[in-house]
Amino acid sequence: MFDSPLSASAYEVLGVAATVDHEELRRAYRLQLRRTHPDTGGDASVFIQVQRAWELVGTPELRAAYDRGHGFAEDDTAWDGWRAPSARTDTRPRAKSSGEAGGRQRRRFVALVQEWAGSAVPDPYDPAFVRTVPRELRRLLADALAEEDTARSVGDLGMGFTAWHDVAVPAGPAAGPNTAQELDKLAHIVLGPSGLYGLMSADFGGIVRFRGGEVIGTEAGGPAGDRAPITALLTQIRVVSRAARVKFGGAILVLPDDDLAQAIVPLGSIRGTTVVVVRRSALRTLLREGVPGSRTIGGTELFDLRTRIQHTVRFA
User: Fold this and answer.
1) What pLDDT, on a 0 to 100 scale, did the predictor assign at position 294?
2) Residue ranges per structural domain of the chain
3) Where are the alpha helices (DSSP H) in the chain?
4) By C-alpha distance, which of 130, 139, 258, 244 is closest to 198?
5) Which of 96, 140, 210, 261 has the lowest tally of Cβ within 10 angstroms?
6) Which pLDDT score, from 0 to 100, does residue 219 have?
7) Is 162 helix (H, G, I), strand (E, B) or coil?
8) Helix residue spans in 37-89 (DSSP H)
9) 44-57 and 60-70 are packed helices; what angle lies between their axes, rounded to 10 degrees?
10) Closest CA to 10 of 94, 60, 67, 75
11) pLDDT digit string (tens) for 126-174?
12) More confident: 247 or 218
């Protein structure tokens, strides 16, 4: 959660400025522990965040490393955490993939940041600079990072799987009214022996919860009210399903590990599609085993599905 462009810094969680001395930092930590402890009426998820923040800055050595990596130190060293991933050098067999995960969000982020700044920005991924830009721009970068991380996880599934990233969602009657902004792309399609799935990668900058089959959480209406990610994902899947004449076995929302209270959260069948929310670290296991109720696909059927999708998809 602390490495997301959307998340609060360790200092913000502890309620102090990044310039306080160590003793003041320690006092703030103890105060926040008392305020957020579940036994005294505090929020358990916030209590965990406070503990995690202290793990990052609780000693002078840890704090110095955190400051260098997150743009709080005057002698910042180069940090690649938010920059575009470099080319892979290992030769292990990987899932076959097409499209550029997160690529469009990165391009939009850089273009809009330059426009917002009013001049050329030497390093749009510098952590100290990123913290100054509006939240809606940081969200673009957070989404790009989330999609790149999911693509890496899917790639590690091996040769039995095929993935398509940044799939353009065609317009048409299946989309329904008032959905143009949500339907411009489906982040990931994954096909393997366990089934065919549509995936959305998201990062809301904090722990999320669910109500009525939709996401609610830390942004007081942001995830559910502004984006309605589950609803958008199901509609994206429906449009692609009709265009390619295939049936998806499930919809999967992938979140950073720290943003989900448990590894896998099944939301049941929504609009006739099984929906699962999963931590990124548990995604490979879920895709290998399949979502609840999924069936094994193999042989001619797997080949036919791959061919139909390959002939239909266009990239955003």
Assistant:
1) 85
2) 10-70, 96-312
3) 10-14, 22-36, 44-57, 60-70, 103-117, 127-130, 135-155, 229-244, 283-289, 299-312
4) 244
5) 261
6) 45
7) strand
8) 44-57, 60-70
9) 100
10) 67
11) 888 898 999 999 999 999 999 999 999 999 999 899 999 999 997 654 4
12) 247
- Tokens at 66, concatenated: 């955190």
Query: In whole angstroms, what separates CA 54 from the centre of its chain?
Result: 24
Tens of pLDDT, residues 76-89: 555 566 887 776 66
Element (H, E) at 38: none
Average pLDDT over residues 12-36: 94
* C-alpha separations of 199 from 13, 185, 227 in Å: 31, 11, 15
The two tokens of residue 183 are 């339907």
Alpha carbons 64 and 165: distance in angstroms, whole number: 37
10-70: CATH superfamily: DnaJ domain (1.10.287.110)
Q: Max CA-CA distance within the chain?
A: 66
List, in order, residues 6 or more apart from 222 with CB less than 8 Å away: 204
Could you give the CA distance from residue 241 to residue 86 in angstroms, rounded to a whole number? 33
Helices (H), strands (E): how many in the chain? 10, 9
Structure-token pair, residue 224: 């559910």
Q: Is the pTM of this model over 0.90?
A: no
